[in-house]
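ARCHIVE CARD
Drawer: 12
Card no.: 0347
Subject: one protein chain, sequence and derived structure
Cross-reference: see card 0346
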Amino acid sequence: MTEIRCIAIEGVIGAGKSSLARILSDRLSANLIMEEFEENPFLEKFYEDRKRFAFQTQMFFLINRFKQQQQLNQQDLFSNFMVSDYIFEKDKIFAYLNLSGEELKLYETIFPLLERDIPKPDLVIFLQSSLDRLTENIKTRGRKYERNLTRAYLAELSEAYNNFFFKYNNTPLLIVNTSEIDFVNKEGDFEELYAQIFREDRGFIEYFNPEPRG
């Protein structure tokens, strides 16, 4: 198995990506890369009117993600570990869900030009969550711009994420069913997940489905 120095965590909105990234980076004393979604001035408007603001929202995210990933090539090159709460390719999930027609054609022209210079992580962790769990997590954190995020959109997004990672083979992948695990509040759950991440016999694509604890 390739040595793991760069880990990226993915999942639907509310899956726990940022929380796990913080915990892992603390454990590994790693450089932490967090997606800068709060700076997108179109995001709240997008949740109010997806069709009208989809393209502006998407392009802002695409350019910001590219700029952030480019900076990674120039800093912390000698850091032992790097942990990120997203992968650059995830941008396509939202694009194909929200764009159409000429806007999607323009996106498809731009994306490959940016993607070719983006470094790949050594491992991607995909957090699978139920709609109930996602909804509860989003409600608990109470972000203003997510107040108009509907359950129907979350369901669409979950299906899009599952389809994307079902076909994903660009890097080693660990798919984690989070239904019976709480790596934020239960140390034992985190340790079990941590052991899976650094298993020496882990295959290129693995599925971690932890048993409920008594």
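Annotation on reverse: The two ends are 33 Å apart (CA to CA). The longest helix spans residues 50-72.
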